[in-house]
Amino acid sequence: MKRRSALLLLTLTGLAGCADAEAVVPDAGASAMPSADLRWPLREPDLAAGFCFTLVQGFTPKQVIDRLGGKELERVKWAQLVGPGDGEAGAARRYFVGLTRFDDWTLIAEDAGDLGVTEEIVRPLSEGRRVLAYRSDATGRGRLLVIEDGEVLLDFDSGTPERWGGSQPGDFVPAMRTAGLLGGTDVTEPTGPALSFLADRTGVTLTREQLNERTYLLVTVPK
């Protein structure tokens, strides 16, 4: 985004700053929403170029930033984080991500980014804990990762549902069938089922309302 390019310039010149993540990120839990609308990103203009949601267990946003080697820029709301929806455009060397907290999980939110499914980044982040990520591209094709203690347990790509991997993919078959990721027509529109799968495994229901009410730390992370 143009605003992000400006923020990057401020960072490089040492003018950007941000308050401590612990002080500015609300620690509110997500309530169970069995009938929640989890297909909402498909109708969100700001996410038309794609998005990635990554949930990191047991780390605060500050700890995630430290382990990613990230740089805090400022505190923003959801509309500032994702609008106008061009994501990583023009940012060849850095990711721009937003971090917020849901109880024992930290969410890394990206529009048009892929940090959460870049294994060389998230494998180290998963040491001693579990990381789950879902990325949707501009065509609606989705990739779902479950990583624990540096090991990819599940790697599912909706574009090639017959070829999915990880070291323990069979362990997730019942949950994937329940969510709608396997079988039926939802395989070609995986966003809703994938977010349902994340909610089932983490207790975090990523509705638009949940994301819109939170404050995020806007962070740059080296690619």
From TrEMBL:
Pfam family membership, one: DUF6461
InterPro entries: DUF6461
Signal peptide, first to last residue: 1-21
Keyword Signal part of the UniProt annotation: yes
PROSITE patterns: PROKAR_LIPOPROTEIN
Keywords: Signal
Protein name per Swiss-Prot or TrEMBL: Lipoprotein
Organism name: Actinoplanes missouriensis (strain ATCC 14538 / DSM 43046 / CBS 188.64 / JCM 3121 / NBRC 102363 / NCIMB 12654 / NRRL B-3342 / UNCC 431)
